[in-house]
Every structure is written in C-alpha cells, then in structure tokens.
C-alpha cells in the first residue's frame, strides 16, 4: 500500500464543484486510487492563476488568491463530507485508524501562500483548517519567498522567515519543493524540525530547477525529512525517450544512495486531468500504475522492507513527528 505525498485532486474537485458537480473523487478518481494500492494522499491546495495554466481564468471573482484558497478549502471539505471512502486526518495516528477502517486518509497541504501577504496570522488560518504541510511559494515570487521560476539568488523575505517559524510552531511541515535555491538554503539555516520536499526528484539525473542537488538531498536528510518521488515526465528525464517509470525508479535508487532509504518517499503529482503537457512518465501515467514503480524498485534490488519504507512508512513517520503543539 502506498501513501502519495502530493496530489492535485483538489484542483479537479474545485473546478468541477464550481461547475455544479458533486462526488467528484468517488465518481472520477477513487477506482484508480484503489487499483494502484493508494492508502492515503496529501491533498494540495494549489491556487496559482498562472496564465493559460488553470481554470481560474474562467471563474468570475477569482482574481484574489485568498478567495481562491477559500474556495478550494470549502470545495475540498464539502467533497470529503459527502462520502466516507476518503477521510481528512491531521496526524499519522488518525491516518492509521482510517486505514484500519478500510478507507483512504487525506492530509491537507498548502501549495503556495501568496494569499497571506506578509501576515503570519495567515499561517494560523491554514493550520486551523487542518493543513499539516505548506510551501511558501508555487513557482512565482511572492511577499514570502521566490519560487523555482524566479531569480535563483533571491532568498526568503523577512515575512517568509516568520512564516517558517510560525508553521513549525503550529505543527506544519515546511515543504521546499517549489522554492528556488537561495530560499531552500535559507530554510535550512533557520529550521528547527524536519523539512520535506514533497514532490521533487534528483538534479543529478534530470537537471531541472524543480529537482534537488545531492547537497540539497543531504541537507533534507540532516533535518530528518523526506523527499517524495515525482512522476511528472519533465522531472524524470530531460531526454523524452527516457521519461519512463524505470527512470523514476533510478531516482529512488539515487536518493537512497545519497540520503539513505529512510528519507525516500512518494509525491507523485499526477495531474494528467489538467490536460496535455501534464502527463506522468511512460508507464506511470496515473495512480493505477504505481505498483509498476515498485516492481522496478524490486528489480533494482530494494527488498520488501525498503520498499515499504518508501511506499508509506517514511512520510508517515515525519507526519507523526513531535505531534501537534497546543495553540
Ligand atoms: Zn507542485
């Protein structure tokens, strides 16, 4: 069974619910998740309105990032409330209980915090809604930090540093997957807990800005964090003919060599439902094919214990963490 540490399903849920649909997860996604052995997910609230990339351009009133964040959270909550198959959790212990009951568990994460401006109280609103992970930016530059799409030299802003401290005080994991390099190292300087990269691969094997250097992988290991394998084709290999499930398995092997297997996790980022250009690597187009990745890991010599750590145990360990501090 597999815990996917980064899912954009709330994007599809929100788009469809705003158009009047209900039961989107159950009707359109659940069967694939079950077939792939997915036992739990981290559902990301991704609020970017990047030109030509999202449905928000067609939604009246969606200019405000705060409004989009609230719409996504409200749609996610409504969706989860109308069914029992996928249940929202805040702790690893709650996740285990949901799994034991035969349902899928879902943690909430914030992918890009532009909505809070420079106000650290915004972090409290995310935490109060149950978010256990957060990224200061998507690829954009905002008042907290600069994302992977911006100037690589520009580090965290003062409000971004305050946000990191506030997140950790509220039991939210800091997720560096979309940060630029300078921001990454600023987080490492000030963190006092595990840092994760929920959906990033190895720059050594695929040199794109969203992947991590060996030094960055080791820095995450040193915080006690994990790095989630991302199935998106463009982060698996720069050569199109090698954007395959086998190549992604090689990223897992490299991560295990550089960090130790106890720091490798999953964050597949499946988003082919967003349209052309968003495909997963060949052989790993959707959650249903996840068992094939683990078959490759077996072929590459990872034993059952190591595969279970990558599949679910490592990320659950980090989410168990020190627990949620009192408000
Ligand atoms: Zn992302």
Structure description:
By secondary structure, the protein is an alpha/beta fold. The chain has a domain at about 195-325: Metal-dependent hydrolases (TIM Barrel, Alpha-Beta Barrel), CATH 3.20.20.140. It is built from 11 helices and 9 strands. It has helices spanning about 10-20, 25-35, 65-80, 90-100, 120-130, 160-170, 180-190, 215-225, 245-260, 290-300, 305-320; strands spanning about 1-5, 40-45, 85-90, 105-110, 130-135, 175, 195, 225-230, 265. The strands form 2 sheets. Strands 1, 2, 3, 4, 5, 6 and 7 form a 7-stranded parallel beta sheet that branches. A two-stranded parallel sheet has the order 8-9. Helix 4 (about 90-100) links the parallel strand 3 and strand 4 (about 105-110). Helix 1 (about 10-20) crosses helix 3 (about 65-80) and helix 9 (about 245-260) packs across helix 10 (about 290-300). It binds zinc ion. Zinc ion (ZN) binds near residues 111, 178, 199 and 269.
Largest sheet entry: 7 strands, parallel
Total helical elements: 11
The CATH class label of the domain at 193-327 is: Alpha Beta
Task: Tell me the CATH architecture of the domain at 193-327.
Answer: Alpha-Beta Barrel
The end-to-end span amounts to: 33 Å
Question: What series of H and E elements makes up the topology?
Answer: EHHEHEHEHEHEHEHEHEHH
Kindly name the structural category: alpha/beta
Q: What's the CATH topology name of the domain at 193-327?
A: TIM Barrel
- Regions with pLDDT < 50 over 5+ consecutive residues? none
- Percent range of helical residues: 25-40%
Q: Which superfamily, in CATH terms, is the homologous superfamily of the domain at 193-327?
A: Metal-dependent hydrolases
Shape: globular
Structure summary, number of beta strands: 9
Proportion of residues in β-strands: 5-15%
Rg over alpha carbons = 18 Å
Bound compounds: zinc ion
What is the typical, i.e. mean, pLDDT?
95
